[in-house]
Amino acid sequence: MRLLHTSDWHLGRSFHRVSLLDAQAAFLDHLVAVAREREVDAVLVAGDIYDRAIPPLRAVELFDAALHRLAAAGVPTVMISGNHDSARRLGVGAGLIERAGVHLRTDPAGAGTPVLLADAHGPVALYGLPYLEPALVRESFGVRKASHAAVLGAAMDRVRADLATRPHGTRSVVLAHAFVAGGLPSESERDITVGGVQSVPAGVFDGVDYAALGHLHGCQTVGERVRYSGSPLAYSFSEVHHRKTMWLVDLGPAGEIAAERIDCPVPRPLARISGRLDELLADPALARHEDAWVEATLTDPVRPAEPMARLARRFPHTLSLLFAPERAADDPARSYAQRLRDRDDRQIAEDFVAHVRGAGPDAPERATLAEAFETVRIAAAEREAAG
């Protein structure tokens, strides 16, 4: 069986205030064309179809058109909701849409109920595990600890239990939206940390032939049978070196995996350049970036006049301008952004306590801060789940 694995479309998202809707439409054209030309048996979309719970109208129209075209091509499609999606909104009409061969899996309660397809070698069970917010599904899954590993493990227990009732030789595929240990994140994924831990072990997917993952935006192989497709477009300059692709996966008669990367259309290349402004404007080696979306970091000791306007004359698609003056590491004038780089919200709060009080928080105070941040995160997740 031939599967086309994609995820993290983030329909409606912009790139530094530049609309990507035309680029997303071009990607969906490409996806449908690949599904037809490569004779795909099923398309798998592993979450984050939209960029936010209430997407703009044109994003909804893109999604609707893609579903109609896949259904018209006779290509079954299995989709799950991600942490950016409103599962309840995305799942509206799922029962009716399923009649057209589009299987939306947005309800955690259906984790152990597969979409059943078949090829010349027998049945294939495809299980869709929507993004599982631990605090919201812990009780329904009967787990004591509200952690990603616990709730995803419980969902996979349901998958394995159902699979055990299927005819011998039934092959299995799981779609999941999670941060699996060993995966490499970028700056454009929304944090899903729970209690300071966001990753789950890859071993949670043991027992299935292929795990089609979403959430991380870089295409990567966690294990032969556990892969991220990555996002089809770059959504941050941290993805400058990403090769944006989908996985074309051939599932053999005994569950063998053969995977090929299918390149996605690139609307415009990305470039990160750094140096003094005059050097950036004169360096002939940077000519290759003149048509790229550019993030420029200026290292001039003193901020130059009209830097964005001057950069735009050579790099007309400059979208981000940063300043990192050449200073010693202990210089008190170091930028605030530099001091906060690679520090999460809790660490920043602890640093603030140390700054105003002269001493950092003790263990009980750190626990209180962690609990406060977790409460805010869960409240936000509950509001999004409620629509």
TrEMBL record:
Pfam families: Metallophos, SbcD_C. Residues 267-355 form the Nuclease SbcCD subunit D C-terminal domain. One of its GO terms (molecular function) is exonuclease activity. InterPro entries: Calcineurin-like_PHP, DNA_Repair-Maintenance_Comp, Metallo-depent_PP-like, Mre11_N, SbcD, SbcD_C. Keywords: DNA recombination, DNA replication, Endonuclease, Exonuclease, Hydrolase, Nuclease. Signal peptide: none annotated. Residues 1-91 form the Calcineurin-like phosphoesterase domain. The keyword Hydrolase applies. SbcCD cleaves DNA hairpin structures. These structures can inhibit DNA replication and are intermediates in certain DNA recombination reactions. The complex acts as a 3'->5' double strand exonuclease that can open hairpins. It also has a 5' single-strand endonuclease activity. Heterodimer of SbcC and SbcD. Belongs to the SbcD family. PANTHER family: COMPONENT OF ATP-DEPENDENT DSDNA EXONUCLEASE, NUCLEASE SBCCD SUBUNIT D. This is Nuclease SbcCD subunit D. The lineage of its organism: Bacteria, Bacillati, Actinomycetota, Actinomycetes, Kitasatosporales. The gene is sbcD.
